[in-house]
Amino acid sequence: MANYFEKLIRPLLFRLDAEQAHEIGIKALGLGFAKTAFLTPEEVERQKQIFGAIERFGLRFENPLGIAAGFDKNAKVVNQLAALGFGFVEVGTITYKPQPGNPKPRLFRLPNDRALINRLGFNNDGAEVIAKRLRTNQRKCIVGVNIGRNKDVKNEQAVENYLHAMNEIHDAADYIAVNVSSPNTPNLRDLQSAENLAMLIGHLQKRNQELGSKPLLVKIAPDLLAEDIEAVVDICIDQSVSGIIATNTTISRGGLNTRGVERFGSGGLSGAPLAARSNDVVSTIYRYSKGKLPIIGVGGVFNAQDAFEKIAAGASLFQAYTGFVYSGPSFAGNIVSGLANILAERGFGSLDEAVGSAARVV
To answer: Does pTM surpass 0.85?
Structure first.
């Protein structure tokens, strides 16, 4: 299956503009292509049983692998992704009002680095439409909703904008992720400062409780300094945030093999070059919080060993996006079964035993 994708399908898709190829992939999933052509119901069920039910911030996950926000922005293929073996799907980033995002082209492949650069800019159908779509969907996995600020809203009005988005999607989400770390919305990352973040999360958590408390998580950038990460952790603990998603894409271009990368312009870099930095951030959060704050690790997961390193660094769950784009429909199944094998080979009796195992020994 993997060879079929790598030798035939991926070369065809990679001849197309990256965003066009992505849209074709979404349409193919929506038509049930992956479900009927790649995994039998028995295979899907077998993958769900590998880890059993995993308890995280009051939710039960079939397995620890999720698809990161940005892939299914408009919640159109949630169940199809679950059928491929993902234990949860984070849709979005969604904004209160629909918006087209940044001008095209805005998504670029770096095959020599197994990476992507995107400056999509929160292109989405808007909170009202996406919430309605989720409500009418008999979902087959945990669904998180990632929310962000509209581009035409200044940070001074960001709280109200986020609150409007939360009002729309709250009842349709299993958990809510607050995106303050995308590099593609002007000045959005300024919301990660201690003062701004404390105010934003305080208001969101109050509204969350009024609406009937759902797990609330914060997604942070990989480019923060250690002291900034620690300040975020302090705020999250103080505000009873359920967890941190680490990390978003990076603005760094250091160490890339791709020549002339500057021709792609600005945007967030994802994929293999982000793996080490993401793991460092996960470990920093795990150690500083003494393992008390659940972490969803994101960045550079291409195989089961990458997944294990996220878990060992301190992640309770992990997500992928770029690895899925490069690896195809067999990706989730290979990761989940491969991770289970690694845990068994290393003598871990459960996933929880492995969480933070590398961070604890330093």
So the answer is: yes
**Secondary structure letter of residue 121 according to DSSP:** -
CA-derived radius of gyration, the chain:
19
Tokens, residue 300: 């550079």
DSSP code string of 14-48: TTS-HHHHHHHHHHHHHTTHHHHHT--HHHHHHHH
Give the 3-state secondary structure of residue 281.
Answer: helix
47-84 CB burial, b ≥16 within 10 A, e <16: bbebbeebebbebebbbbbbbbbbbbbbbbbbbbbbbb
Task: Match 């996220």 to its residue by tokens.
Answer: 310
Kindly state the helix (H) or strand (E) to which residue 221 belongs, with its residue range: none
Please pick, among 182, 242, 278, 316, the residue that the annotation labels catalytic: 182
182 part of the active site: yes
Domains of the chain: 2-360 (3.20.20.70)
Span 74-98, pLDDT tens digits: 999 999 999 898 999 999 999 999 9
3-state secondary structure of 319: strand
Q: How far apart are CA 330 and CA 98, in angstroms?
A: 33
Give the span between the Cα atoms of 237 and 3, in whole angstroms: 45
User: pLDDT for 16-63, tens place per residue?
Assistant: 889 999 998 999 898 877 654 455 677 656 665 566 569 999 999 989
106 close to 143: Cβ distance less than 8 angstroms: no
